[in-house]
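So, read this over?
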Amino acid sequence: MPVLTACEAGSLSNKELQTAAGIRDRSTFHINYLTPLLKRNLLERTIPDKPTSSKQKYRLTAKGKQLLAAANFSTGQSNEQPTG
């Protein structure tokens, strides 16, 4: 889930996501990580009508945010800042 976790901060480029996942090979990253997340509607393109754009970035969908929230809840992690 490192790709989804990285996207919590906002939209990221292909290279930024690949680095977050710790994958060196671009095709491996696309086949094993990025494409499945897009197909499961956990990530979406910021420029959906131009998937190969050099300016393309990826962001979490509502479904992706829900999955991360559920994962964080089940592991006892929280992204909320302490108050006071």
Remarks:
- DSSP finds four helices and three strands in the chain.
- The longest strand covers residues 57-60.
